[in-house]
Design goal:
The chain has 11 helices and 15 strands. By secondary structure, the protein is an alpha/beta fold. It folds into 2 domains: 201 residues, Medium-chain alcohol dehydrogenases, catalytic domain (Quinone Oxidoreductase, Chain A, domain 1), CATH 3.90.180.10; 136 residues, 3-Layer(aba) Sandwich (Rossmann fold), CATH 3.40.50.720. It is globular, with a radius of gyration of 20 Å.
Amino acid sequence: MSTMKAMVLMGHGDFDQLVWREDWPKPVPAAGEVLIRVGACGLNNTDINTRTAWYATEVREGISEKGGTSGFDVQDASDGTWGGQPLTFPRIQGADTVGRIEAVGPGVDPARVGERVIVDPWLLGPGDWMEPGNAPYYGSECDGGFAEYTTIRASNAHRIECDLSDAEIATFPCALTTAETLVLRSEPRPGETVVISGASGGVGSTALQLCKLRGARVIGIASAAKHDQLRAAGCDLVIDRAVPDLEAAIRETAGGPVEVVLDVVGGPMFMPVVSALRPGGRYASCGAISGPMVEFDLRRLIYRDLKLCGATITPPGTMARLVKLIERGQIKPQLAATYPLRDLHDAQRAFLAKNHVGNIVVTP
């Protein structure tokens, strides 16, 4: 069979740019690559940010349901990807892929056929892996997993052996590597208090678990309707994101200023969470879904000796290490819902509505 079913992104814009095809060419693994029959693929913010051209520097607002649906009216989308480069269309998105190896390209051990694998979406090159041009992202700079089949560099397809379903494992790739990078940047220590904004999302709920593994106390910020689920997931304390004075709420809930903030929200939440840090506190951010433009009082940074870090590109070897956590059951999947791949429009609408805890997955 030379064709497959796939959801193909034809350009920046509305959902009508995501086109369902049942006659798309089935990929062939090149040298050093494997062909994976996709079992499931998770959703993440990168898919929507890229489709809508939100990464373009002229966009000043966050990802709302409206913007995440219709896209942003930009004059120049040449910097419309996370790395500031133009996207090549058509493109198959989807970074969070799980499946089985069906064929291998030249130079790959044929014994790998049949392996169940989880994809590491960071295709890091040799040399300076922190340089975006040397760190293409699967499903962005190359085709991803919103299809029946996909190809990827063999070293990025990690064998995984556990009792979880494909859909459960597909909640991990982007969320787990991103959350681990947030944690590595901020270095929470046993007994410290960590505040996580957007704690109910895929990254936030995973970061929660990673912080608990490190012995930290975790305060999650989310809508009140999700508090019981966050407590069940391991949150020690929770705060309603709608409180009128977030800084005061954090200090009251924590019993004082906190050591670490992990922020996936940004926007108006930025200054209150930074202001809740103790002297010498650490802040790390991997997202700005509520808005990339913030006001910042530099005196908070200077006179409290704070450390502020961004977290995007994941260090080499991270996924290989994290697979062991999954296999040992030390980190649990947070599967919110599963949709058929052809219903990706509906899945993304549910993702944008933010009524879920964890991650949403599609299956071909």
